[in-house]
């Protein structure tokens, strides 16, 4: 019996773990599938578009030809004037004139674009040009951004739980260390003696005897002997059943008798897990200085790793780029030469955005408390003072 019960218990434990992890995995998998579908869609639409040489492109080439001809005819022309003309002309140029769309809208390039859309970063270096691509981009963002924030909220609960427990364990350890330093040997021994005395005085309430049970029932005494004996007998049977009847596992009972009930119960628990999303984040309360320190360390680690494949970036530029990315500002002034390598950094972006989101939530709570204190203080100042009249 023990050998058969252990596999059943292991299967039930695995099922519980699976259904507990299912909501979190569902959100993450939905976001990954959504990003891959968007990458396929945009790479097909924007990558296969035809580049039409517009009138502006012809004017640009004509002006460039005039400038080069004047330079060759008049070599004594001021160099500064030539630089100004070239700079002004190049500012009017568009990137699409010189770049093949298929080189930009590869699968990895489109996947990087989709990540910048639903994370609301929006660097601006890659954007749809066709009218169909622009409409689909708006529709894609309309569903992708809520899904991204749902993933952030869900993963934020897990991260908030981990940070809260770590912070509480650290506080407990700190209090134990302080208590051990402050506690001397004599006082600790006295405290232990008091605890042992208190424990020795604890009275364990055992089940009532039959005579005590009969004495406690005042209503039984007033009845006749016949009815009294019958009621006493029923009470004794009920009392005996309470102490001898083993507790039955209702979940096992349902599972063995009717599996449909157990499945319904499991589905209810899964639905409850969906309803609990964001609850842990609302209870999260740690010092804001600690969160700022976590953000600084988190960005510093990425800033030390990123220059290994982005050789144009040093530590300071990489730190600036990571901060602008995680805060979803996304100026686009710093561009990546190898976006496909940064795609493997997407997990870093999601977790980092969660940390920043939690820090912003803490800052928001602190601001609300500050506003409440200021308003209550101003209200107390404006309250008219009570006049005391002489009797």
UniProtKB/TrEMBL annotation:
Top-level taxonomic group: Eukaryota
GO cellular component, one term: plasma membrane
UniProt keywords, alphabetically: Ion channel, Ion transport, Membrane, Potassium, Transmembrane, Transmembrane helix, Transport
Subcellular compartments: Membrane
Mode of membrane association: Multi-pass membrane protein
SUPFAM superfamilies linked: Voltage-gated potassium channels
InterPro entries for the chain: 2pore_dom_K_chnl (IPR003280), K_chnl_dom (IPR013099)
Membrane-spanning segments: 21-45, 104-123, 135-153, 286-306, 318-336, 342-363
Pfam families registered for this protein in UniProt: Ion_trans_2 (PF07885)
Record-annotated Potassium channel domain positions: 103-159, 294-366
GO MF terms held by the record: outward rectifier potassium channel activity; potassium ion leak channel activity
One GO BP: stabilization of membrane potential
Predominant location category: membrane
Family affiliation: Belongs to the two pore domain potassium channel (TC 1.A.1.8) family.
Protein name: KCNKI protein
Organism: Cepphus grylle (Black guillemot)
């Amino acid at each position: 019996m023990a050998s058969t019960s252990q596999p059943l218990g292991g299967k039930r434990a695995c099922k519980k773990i699976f259904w507990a992890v299912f909501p979190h995995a569902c959100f993450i998998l939905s976001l990954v599938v959504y990003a891959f579908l968007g990458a396929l869609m945009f790479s097909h639409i924007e990558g296969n578009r035809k580049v039409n040489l517009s009138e502006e492109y012809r004017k640009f080439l004509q002006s460039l030809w005039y400038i080069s001809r004047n330079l060759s005819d008049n070599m004594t022309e001021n160099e500064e004037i030539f630089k100004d003309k070239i700079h002004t002309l190049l500012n009017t140029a568009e990137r699409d004139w010189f770049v093949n769309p298929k080189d930009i809208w590869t699968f990895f390039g489109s996947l990087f674009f989709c990540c910048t859309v639903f994370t609301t970063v929006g660097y601006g270096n890659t954007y749809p040009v066709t009218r169909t691509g622009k409409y689909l981009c708006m529709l894609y963002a309309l569903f992708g951004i809520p899904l991204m924030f749902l993933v952030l909220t869900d993963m934020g609960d897990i991260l908030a739980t981990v940070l809260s427990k770590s912070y509480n364990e650290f506080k407990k350890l700190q209090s134990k260390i302080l208590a051990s330093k402050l506690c001397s040997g004599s006082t600790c021994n006295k405290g232990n003696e008091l605890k042992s005395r208190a424990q020795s005085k604890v009275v364990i309430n055992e089940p009532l005897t039959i005579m005590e049970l009969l004495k406690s029932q005042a209503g039984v005494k007033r009845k006749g002997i016949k009815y009294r004996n019958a009621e006493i007998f029923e009470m004794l049977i009920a009392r005996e059943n309470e102490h001898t009847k083993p507790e039955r596992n209702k979940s096992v009972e349902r599972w063995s008798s009717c599996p449909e009930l157990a499945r319904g119960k499991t589905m209810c628990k899964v639905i409850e897990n969906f309803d609990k999303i964001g609850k842990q984040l609302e209870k999260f309360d740690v010092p804001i200085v600690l969160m700022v320190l976590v953000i600084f360390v988190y960005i510093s680690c990425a800033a030390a790793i990123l220059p290994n494949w982005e050789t144009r970036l040093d530590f300071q530029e990489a730190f600036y780029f990571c901060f602008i990315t995680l805060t979803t500002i996304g100026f686009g002034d710093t561009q990546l030469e190898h976006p496909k390598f940064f795609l493997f950094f997407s997990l870093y972006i999601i977790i980092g955005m969660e940390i920043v989101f939690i820090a912003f939530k803490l800052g928001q709570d602190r601001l609300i408390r500050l506003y409440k204190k200021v308003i209550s203080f101003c209200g107390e100042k404006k309250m008219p003072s009570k006049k005391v009249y002489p009797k």
